[in-house]
Write a structure and sequence with these properties.
The complex is a heterodimer of chains A (about 15) and B (about 260). Chain A has about 15 residues and is mainly β. Chain A contains no helices and two strands. The radius of gyration of chain A is 10 Å and the shape is rod-shaped. In chain B, the strands form three sheets. A nine-stranded antiparallel sheet of chain B has the order 6-2-3-4-19-18-17-11-15. A five-stranded antiparallel sheet of chain B has the order 5-1-7-8-9, with helices on one face.
Chain lengths: ~15, ~260
Amino acid sequence: RQEQSPLTIYFHNL
Amino acid sequence: MLELRLVQGSLLKKVLESVKDLVNDANFDCSATGFSLQAMDSSHVALVALLLRSEGFEHYRCDRNLSMGMNLNNMAKMLKCAGNDDIVTIKADDGGDTVTFMFESPTQDKIADFEMKLMDIDSEHLGIPEAEFQAIVRMPSAEFARICKDLSSIGDTVVISVTKEGVKFSTRGDIGTANIVCRQNTTVDKPEDATVIEMQEPVSLTFALRYMNSFTKATPLSNQVTISLSSELPVVVEYKVAEMGYIRFYLAPKLEE
């Protein structure tokens, strides 16, 4: 089963 | 005071058509560097980054950095009213609550201005680190769009795998499976028909086709698309905007649970 990862795992909030 | 004159106004029309379905509202940022936008889709899975460098405008006046919140659907509606050959000028006053789009026909016999209300948007700005990619694929944008469209009639996700054999796009659905392999091809008459694969190491990632198909709405902007891949990093799908900048789409991969 695959889960969609959100972008915020990879990029941090400025 | 902001005044940006873009002779090739159709570029702005195409940019809006390519982002308006992905992002509802976004802040356009204007600085000495250029006219830019960074926005995520509502589910925080995809991000669009646009840069139109100031040098690409015939006239570029931006007295101080300005952030203008716009509804992209409404902006697209207004830009649709510009002719494909029209010169587009974007005007705004510092601290004002409207933006004006002026359209001039190439022969100057028709001049239109459309004023749009700005909105306050609380947007998150993400820091995107410079990354080394395991594989970078450059291919005809129409070919990539065709592949995404074809595969989405079979399955919901695409596995993009780069090996020394080429780049493989695969999907799986209820009715069966599909695999499309594109090999490097640089022996073409026109450079825009080339497929170039730069691979540091093999990489295989899974993405939602719904988003990929949305990104391909930028196809009219450029004959070529660049797809940059690294394990467990968002893919970057980039279309150059003439000589003046780019539109980049980032999409987080699907991970095994």
